[in-house]
Amino acid sequence: MTKPMVDYRQFRFSKLNTPEFSHLKLLGGWLVYFVLYLLTENLIPTERCHVVHCALDDAIPFLEGFAIPYCFWYLLIVISLGWFLLYDVDSFKRLQVFIIITQLVAMAVYIIWPSYQDLRPAVFPRKNFLSHVMGFIYSFDTPTGVCPSLHVAYSIGIASTWCKCRRAPAWWKAFAVAAAVIISVATAFVKQHSVLDIAAALPLGLLAEILTFHVIYPKKRDA
Predict the structure, then answer these.
(1) pTM for the structure as a whole
(2) What percent of the chain shows pLDDT beyond 70?
């Protein structure tokens, strides 16, 4: 069994600035994101938002089966950050920096150019467990602040970081890439995002890729 790189049992807040544990400060990016998320969700009225919609969106049916990969995204974030925290701290730093960049840029866009999507079905075509799951997600996740899609941007970062991690097995790298693609497609089929949101996430992911792996970590991108 692979031995963890850091013994987190020894962690104390007084040690947060030590070389052994300083990377944990990057997790603070999530606190900033959640604050910005709450502010943009509650302070920007829907009337100010631009509707994001294209003809292809109307051709894509609602398929509740895609709720599985859509929700798996949350678990994939936890699995990836958790594994890197234990077994590849450099990859943890890169992925977390990638996520922070996408969060900050996306939030700036949501504030400067508020977006809204009108794709959610008024009535689910089928009533089953997965449609109830999507109904629950709809109940707390408003259809504002959608372009670019962070579901897609994070997925790009996760797949990219896994592919550059030498300690990860080849089968898992392939799984991470496949998961990123399926998750991105799922956002359209569960009517959480327009195809335009997905397309807008691609240059955002490219920007974060360049800044993370070629500017901030130019000499360690293949670890």
Answers:
(1) 0.94
(2) 97
